[in-house]
Write a structure and sequence with these properties.
Layout (H helix, E strand, L loop, with lengths): L11 E2 L2 E2 L12 H4 L3 H8 L3 H5 L1 H23 L9 H17 L1 H7 L7 H19 L6
Antiparallel strand pairs: 1-2
């Protein structure tokens, strides 16, 4: 919402203007117990709310550009492989975490281990980190 003087207005927290909610339950409800619920519901509706949001467009462009810049700098320094698409990398990072969490209950039965136990979560974080490092970094002799 814009104020009369054209500046943005809206709810604030500690003096910082908060982005408007796009849809879904009030903050702190479904998102804590089911963080994927809002995103899944928005996908079911073919992103009809996101399509209308100028904020999402600006933030997503900045996010993608930041990732691209980081990847380009790493490639120029000889640390990252050249030509990695920031969007594809982001999707991959999200996917390896999302699958694990959304299948934690069935996976715990199928693989006969508590996938949400402290050790299992630490092992998964380590595995995911190593996977992304191997994907992004120039291969070195081991």
């Amino acid at each position: 919402m814009a104020a009369r003087d054209g500046s943005a207005s809206g709810p604030t927290r500690n003096g910082v203007r908060q982005a408007p909610r796009l849809s879904g339950p009030p903050p702190g409800r479904a998102h804590r117990s089911r963080p994927h619920a809002h995103r899944s519901r928005e996908n079911l509706h073919r992103a009809k709310h996101l399509k209308k949001s100028e904020i999402i467009k600006v933030v997503s462009r900045k996010f993608v550009n930041m990732g691209s810049d980081l990847l380009d700098c790493g490639a120029a320094a000889g640390v990252f492989r050249p030509g990695i698409d920031a969007v594809q990398l982001n999707i991959t990072i999200a996917a390896i975490g999302y699958y694990y969490l959304t299948n934690r209950f069935t996976g715990s039965i199928i693989f006969e281990r508590d996938l949400m136990g402290k050790e299992a979560l630490a092992e998964r974080l380590s595995f995911n980190t190593e996977t992304i490092i191997r994907l992004v970094c120039v291969q070195t002799a081991r």
